[in-house]
Structures are given as structure tokens and as C-alpha cells.
Design goal:
Elements (H helix, E strand, L loop, with lengths): L1 H17 L6 H7 L2 E4 L9 H11 L2 E4 L5 H8 L8 H13 L5 E3 L2 E4 L9 H12 L5 E3 L2 E3 L7 H15 L3 H22 L3 H9 L7 E2 L1 E6 L2 H4 L8 H7 L2 E5 L5 H8 L9 H16 L4 E7 L3 H16 L5 E6 L5 H26 L5 E7 L4 E7 L11
Parallel strand pairs: 1-2, 1-3, 3-5, 4-6, 8-9, 8-10, 10-11
Antiparallel strand pairs: 7-13, 12-13
Bound molecules: iron/sulfur cluster.
Iron/sulfur cluster binds next to helix 5 and helix 14.
């Protein structure tokens, strides 16, 4: 706001001294095309790519509000019962943007790999949105699927140009926007993905700074579910508050995931499910964490496959407890939290027994420390052998 006022001041000084009248800076600002990006589904795969691309083109980028219970209630007025939870809430994001923007960006991105794809719903959703909403702003719907023979890298660039031309006719500006957006996205992915060294260091780090034994889990789920406070029921945050350290399937190093997936008997085509299954197999094999939690939006075809594969492998490796939580708009928060707490307490209890077993011949005490909502474990030195294994 201050920037605009400052520019207005400079404009009036210019008019007084030069006696010329030009468009005011604020009127120029109003002329900027407003592009709406719904914060759901594909957005969470390419957040920086989309934002930087449109900003570099000179558009004003408007994101939909963060998901909330109000937004979900709004979404449910438009969604059919058969839709998955993630697609239902997406309609609430569309509704939030319809009156605020000139363009709505809804890419049909089936994937940039010739044998790995996103969920087919990513392709069909723009048509559903056209059918459900009246008075939509102009839709920007580039379609790209590397699985199609004609959709090579040039096709992706051509798609970016067709979208870019809606905002500016300057090809240099569009080229620059593409380059900067790709760079920003790469940087984002580097930040979010752990490398193998980071992962191994995390696995070996078993104690917190205060000497408490850490409880670690891998949280499996689609990026757009884990990042969304309503779809995920805030589970990542709740786990951290219970003293649990976690890595998500989205953060797992790609090299490790690919190595694990080679062990499957058939090729897994869904990109997100590859991350989920690869992460689960790695930890089931290495047993460097205390539990596996998979978050499943209902009803979801691709996750029906991944959850089944994980369950079968987990049955063979019973040391690591697995919980698969299904969520939809009818899920009761209290019930879900109770299951989560029970799971965390099971892991802590198991760890306590393991530690007691490990240290039974040493002069050590395993203490169970109760915090507000959590229970944590600590090994402390003892002077009396009778105290061994006591819990507080
Ligand atoms: S993968 Fe599942 S949750 Fe995601 S859009 Fe497809 S059906 Fe919905």
C-alpha cells in the first residue's frame, strides 16, 4: 500500500513539473491481469513454478484461501458424493476464487515422465468444474502428458507459451518467465527433498538434545493431503506436538525410492504412490524408525493399490507398527485423534520395552517422562541395580 502511495506522489510531482498527463501507477496496477491459483492438488507439486511464471509475466497472482471447515462446507454444496476428499475440497478453492480473478489456472498435468502419471482426476477436474460452476472466469487449461507420443519437452514449452500469451504478447518476457519459474521450482524441490546423507544422519540420531529417546515415524501420503490442514486433520502438526519426529514420503530421497521400487513384481505407474510405497519399503527393510503412518483420502483408486502393497509387506516385517488412517468429510476428528494417540503410545511403550531389554545387564534406568500430552523416554545412570527398569 505504501509503495502505491509513494508512486502516486511521484506521479503528481511529474505532472506538475512536466505538465503531462499519463495513466496513474495505481490505474496501471489495476490493469494487471489477475490469475487465480487454487491451493489444492497439482498446486502442491509445483507451487513455485506456477507463482513465479505468472508473476514474471506481469500478472497478479491470487491464491485461494487456506483450507478451512468453512471452505469445506462450501465445497460440499458442489461436490458429488463419489468424489474423493481431495477433489471435494478443491471445489471450495475454486468457489473462493471465481469472483476475484480474470483467469483461473487449472492445468491438466498428467506428468512429465513417459511411464509415471498423476491421478487421472487431475485431467478430468477442469471439465467437472466447467459443469458444476456457472459464471466462471476464463480458464487457462494447458494439457500435458508425457505418456503421449507427441507430448515431448517442446510440447510443454508450447503449452507455457499459449498460457503466457493470454497475459503478455512479449515472447522474450514469456521465455524469461519460463526459465525463472523452472529455476525456482528446482530450488524448491532441492529444499524439500532430503538427500541420502541427511536421511542416514537422521536415522542414526536417536536422542534429543535433552537426552530423551526420540520416537520417529514416516508419514505417507499425497503432498496435497499432507500440506492441507483439513485433508490431513493437521496430523503432521499433532504428531510433532506429541513429541514425534517425522519424515514424509514427499521428503524421501528419490534415489532410495527408485531402488526400493525395483523390488516390486510389477511397475507402479502413479507418481505419488511410487513415493509412498518406496518410502514404506525402505523403512520396513531397515527398521530405523518406530512406526509407519499412511494417510488415505477416501475414496481413492491409486491409494487402494499402494495401501494394499504396503500392508502385504508390513505383514512380513512385523517389527515396525503400521497404521493406515482413512479420512473423508465424515471423519470424526475426536476418533481420529484417539487412534493417533493410541498409535503413538504403542510406539513409546514398545521402545521402552526394547530399551529395557537392551540395557538389562547394565546399571541403567529407563525413565518414562510424562509431559502435558506426551510421554517420553530417557536412559539415566543409576547407582542402585534394584532401580533397573523402573519407570516414572
Ligand atoms: S489420487 Fe486419490 S486423492 Fe488424489 S485426486 Fe486421485 S482419487 Fe483423489
Amino acid at each position: 500500500m505504501n509503495v502505491i502511495l509513494e508512486e502516486e506522489k511521484r506521479y503528481f510531482i511529474w505532472v506538475i513539473f512536466m505538465g503531462k498527463s499519463i495513466a496513474t501507477p495505481s490505474s496501471k496496477i489495476k490493469l494487471r491481469k489477475r490469475v487465480g491459483i487454487p491451493k489444492g492438488l497439482i498446486y502442491y507439486h509445483y507451487p513455485e513454478l506456477f507463482r513465479i511464471f505468472f508473476e514474471e509475466l506481469g500478472a497478479e497472482v491470487i491464491f485461494s484461501k487456506d483450507s478451512s471447515h468453512t471452505l469445506l462446507l462450501e465445497a460440499l454444496q458442489y461436490a458429488s458424493d463419489e468424489e474423493c476428499f481431495s477433489c471435494k475440497i478443491f471445489l471450495g478453492h475454486i468457489k473462493d476464487l471465481t469472483e476475484k480473478v480474470d483467469y483461473l489456472f487449472l492445468p491438466k498435468f498428467h506428468g512429465t515422465h513417459k511411464s509415471e502419471v498423476n491421478c487421472p482426476k487431475f485431467i478430468g477436474l477442469p471439465d467437472v468444474i466447467r459443469a458444476v460452476f456457472e459464471d466462471l472466469p476464463q480458464l487457462l487449461v494447458p494439457y500435458h502428458s508425457r505418456t503421449k507420443k507427441k507430448h515431448r519437452s517442446l510440447h510443454l514449452i508450447w503449452s507455457a507459451f499459449t498460457v503466457g500469451y493470454k497475459i503478455t504478447k512479449n515472447p522474450i518476457k514469456i521465455t524469461r518467465a519460463i526459465i525463472r519459474a523452472v529455476k525456482a521450482q528446482k530450488k524448491y524441490e532441492e529444499q524439500i527433498k532430503w538427500n541420502e546423507e541427511q536421511l542416514h544422519a537422521w536415522e542414526l540420531d536417536t536422542k534429543s538434545q535433552s537426552g530423551l529417546e526420540k520416537i520417529k515415524i514416516v508419514l505417507l501420503g499425497h503432498a496435497y493431503v499432507l500440506h492441507d490442514p483439513i485433508l490431513s486433520f493437521d496430523i503432521p502438526q499433532r504428531l510433532r506436538e506429541m513429541g514425534v519426529e517425522l519424515i514424509t514420503s514427499e521428503e524421501m530421497p528419490s534415489s532410495i525410492i527408485e531402488k526400493q521400487l525395483k523390488k516390486l513384481h510389477s511397475y507402479l505407474y502413479f507418481k505419488e504412490e511410487r513415493c509412498i510405497v518406496g518410502s514404506a519399503l525402505y523403512f520396513l527393510e531397515n527398521e530405523t524408525i518406530d512406526g509407519i503412518l499412511q494417510l488415505i483420502p477416501y475414496p481413492c483408486g491409486p491409494t487402494a493399490i499402494s495401501s494394499e502393497i504396503i500392508m502385504r509387506y508390513a505383514k512380513k516385517k512385523e517389527k515396525i507398527p503400521l497404521i493406515q488412517l482413512m479420512v473423508d468429510d465424515n471423519t470424526g476428528e475426536a476418533g481420529l485423534v484417539t487412534r493417533l494417540e493410541a498409535f503413538v503410545n504403542t510406539m513409546k511403550r514398545k521402545k521402552l520395552l526394547q530399551l529395557q531389554e537392551l540395557h538389562k545387564h547394565k546399571n541403567l534406568v529407563i525413565k518414562q517422562i510424562h509431559k502435558v500430552d506426551t510421554v517420553e523416554l530417557m536412559i539415566v545412570k543409576s547407582t542402585s541395580i534394584e532401580e533397573e527398569g523402573t519407570m516414572k
